[in-house]
Write a structure and sequence with these properties.
single chain; about 550 residues; four-stranded antiparallel sheet; 14 helices; 19 strands; about 25% helix
Amino acid sequence: MSTSSEASADILIVGASLGGVAAALAAVRRGRSVILTEETAWIGGQATTQGVPLDEHPWAEKYGITRSYAEFRQGVRDYYRQHYPLSRAARADPYLNPGAGWVSKLCFEPRVGLAVLHAMLAPHIAAGRLRIFTRHHPVSVSVSGDRIDAVTLRNTETGEDRLFTGRYVIDATELGDLLELGGVESVIGAESRDETGEPLAVEGPAQPHEQMVFTHIFALDHLPGENHVIDKPAGYDFWLKQTSHRGDYPKFTLPDLLAAKHDHFGRPVAADRYTASTWSFRRNLYKGNFEPGAFPSDVTVAIWPLNEYHLGVLCGVSPEERAKHLAAARELSLSAIYWLQTDAPNPGTGNTGYPGLRPRGDVFGTADGLAQAPYIRESRRIRAEFTVLEQHFRTDLDPTREGPVHYPDSVGLSGYRVDIHKPTAPGQPSITLAMHGKHWIQQIPLGALIPVRVENLLPACKNLGVTHVMNGAFRIHATEWNIGEAAGSLAAFCLDRGESPRGVRNRPALLGDFLQSLERQGIEREWRKMAPASSYHSHHKNELGDEDRFYFGEAWRL
């Protein structure tokens, strides 16, 4: 491959994940020049290219998020008010949930999230402080001693390689790519309980290939009476025979997609209550929120057990094996679409299939209805100066029964439960459900952002110093944004002060100055109230006793 001229900035951010965007925004707002690269066509990671509606803790409307993340959320609502034909009731709702999904207080279309992120970055692009290179993926990292010198990225359209440099380099890739390419000390998969002492860690040796499943999301609308059945995927018969990794039942299991008779929990549908259906779980456009006739259908995205890919992992494998699993995950999702259209039980008709389900590739800027990139739940993680461990947050252990370990170097907050889909034992509930309420809400320690050796590299995604277990609580949107914002702020602060990240953390005066600067820019470092960690609605049964009284999915208001 040929290599073109070098591009350089104060800070090079590889990966325009949600954390990468937050890192870039923080750094340019502090006056630093930034290059932001991304291997897909869009910036925004799990909120846009992957298509994941916001997974958040229950207090996100009031506290526990950064000011810039709150600006992003408000920007999404403002975009709908400015550009969409909202109904009168929806327009008047200060807590507008465009998709009326019950996974989140704010479900929206990926393109809207993308537009808002671009708007937030636009002044800095215009000023020349920020340059964005999409469709570029890293292929090599040049290292001298304990410093990253340069990163070579390949343009996926032209095949041309280009050298990128920065005084600080931030890895905001979804899989921690720079850690592997640069030989940075790192961890993949599940650590041993002997190493971490965590109650949920695996017994015996570490299991590097024990990684969370990933999902290639797809978008659908539903047009009854029409036929949008896709061609039968080549792998359909294979996936049709597979057993679910969650239990002893078929991989393709979904009893009543549209809640014709029963909701997601098997309860009879009642006319006088919000129906928590599988369809509405991660719905990102609800036609009832708009003027009559504005949209022919709702739009939802599929992040269900039936399209979770469980036959291989993406970290610690050869490029060829990674590509094989990525392709297989796409085939699984296409097969899931075909099954829903043709063979899924349809209680509304008494027959099988929903031929009116239409894949909506336009939602993601693709041709086949699948997202531009798969939803990644777990990454390669740095060996950090400080590693976040499960026992720092257990509500049922004596040392932390009254509250979690306090991190004096906190650079932000994460309030999500430990969300790991793996069953506690074959046929048993997932770790997510079995451990609900047994972990406190969390802080993000600065030490978890600092590699044990390399001096000018910082993580800004799911690749910080947490264990496999605690990744289950640190992998969601608001937390990833906070991690990225802290990383971008730290790099800019280090450049201003002529000090290393390690020096900032270990020199009290510098640490105090940095933490104060975070507070001034709107990063909350301490929880206002202490509570067990949870999701927005924690899959219901465990959190709210009256989950039937929804207002457009906003159960948090009860």
